[in-house]
C-alpha cells in the first residue's frame, strides 16, 4: 500500500535510544522494522556508540540521520530517515532531555546532567516520557513541561494556582494518598 506524501511526513522518528557510556542499552524504542530482531538492534546500537563523538551532535549512519546529546554518563539518540529534517529531530531530542530533566532533577546544580544510575532507578519515567513524546514514529508533543506533568500525573493548572508540584523526588506516597483521599471523599 502506498501512502500519500502527507502521511509519510508524519512518521519522522525511526527510533529513540538511551545508551550508557559503554554503549549499553538503557532504553530503546524502535518505531520501524528497519533493524528487525534484537541482535540487529544491539549491533546498530554498538555501531552508533562507536561512531558518536563526545562533542558532536549529529551523525549519518546506514541511511539514517541521528541527533544525539551526551548527559553525564549517558547519551540520548533520536534516529530519523536520511532525508528527515535535522531540526525536527533536534526538537524531539531537546524535548526528551528537558522532560527527563524536569522529572529527575534533584536540584538546580544538576539541571542538565542526568546520570545512568538515576535513569536506571527511574526507568519507568524514561519509557513514559518516550511514549508521551512519540507514538509509532509520530511526534505527539513538543512541550517538555507538559510531558513531565503528564508522566508525573501533575495538573499544570493546579501548579499555576499554587498547588503541589516540584520534582518527583519531593513528591511522596503520603501526598499521593492524601490527594486520592481528597478526591474520593469529597
From TrEMBL:
Domain AP complex mu/sigma subunit stretches: 13-157
GO cellular component: COPI vesicle coat; Golgi membrane
Entry keyword set: Cytoplasm, Cytoplasmic vesicle, ER-Golgi transport, Golgi apparatus, Membrane, Protein transport, Signal, Transport
InterPro entries in the cross-refs: AP_mu_sigma_su, Coatomer_zeta, Longin-like_dom_sf
Location in the cell: Cytoplasmic vesicle, COPI-coated vesicle membrane; Golgi apparatus membrane
Domain of life: Eukaryota
GO biological process, one term: intracellular protein transport
Membrane topology reported for the UniProt record: Peripheral membrane protein
Biological role stated in the UniProt entry: The coatomer is a cytosolic protein complex that binds to dilysine motifs and reversibly associates with Golgi non-clathrin-coated vesicles, which further mediate biosynthetic protein transport from the ER, via the Golgi up to the trans Golgi network. Coatomer complex is required for budding from Golgi membranes, and is essential for the retrograde Golgi-to-ER transport of dilysine-tagged proteins. The zeta subunit may be involved in regulating the coat assembly and, hence, the rate of biosynthetic protein transport due to its association-dissociation properties with the coatomer complex.
Assembly mode: Oligomeric complex that consists of at least the alpha, beta, beta', gamma, delta, epsilon and zeta subunits.
Protein name, as recorded: Zeta-coat protein
Protein species of origin: Acanthamoeba castellanii (strain ATCC 30010 / Neff)
Amino acid at each position: 500500500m502506498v501512502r500519500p506524501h502527507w502521511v509519510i511526513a508524519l512518521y519522522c522518528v525511526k527510533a529513540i535510544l538511551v545508551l550508557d557510556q559503554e554503549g549499553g542499552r538503557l532504553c530503546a524504542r524502535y518505531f520501524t522494522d528497519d533493524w528487525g530482531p534484537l541482535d540487529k538492534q544491539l549491533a546498530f546500537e554498538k555501531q552508533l556508540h562507536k561512531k558518536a563523538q563526545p562533542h558532536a551532535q549529529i551523525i549519518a549512519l546506514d541511511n539514517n540521520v541521528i541527533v544525539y546529546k551526551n548527559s553525564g554518563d549517558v547519551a540520548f539518540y533520536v534516529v530519523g530517515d536520511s532525508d528527515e529534517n535535522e531540526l525536527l529531530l533536534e526538537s524531539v531530542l531537546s524535548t526528551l532531555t528537558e522532560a527527563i530533566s524536569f522529572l529527575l532533577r534533584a536540584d538546580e546544580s544538576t539541571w542538565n546532567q542526568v546520570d545512568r544510575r538515576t535513569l536506571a532507578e527511574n526507568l519507568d519515567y524514561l519509557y513514559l516520557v518516550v511514549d508521551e513524546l512519540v507514538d509509532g514514529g509520530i511526534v505527539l508533543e513538543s512541550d517538555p513541561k507538559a510531558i513531565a506533568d503528564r508522566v508525573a500525573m501533575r495538573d499544570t493548572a493546579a501548579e499555576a494556582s499554587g498547588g503541589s508540584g516540584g520534582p518527583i523526588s519531593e513528591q511522596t506516597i503520603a501526598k499521593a494518598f492524601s490527594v486520592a483521599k481528597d478526591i474520593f471523599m469529597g
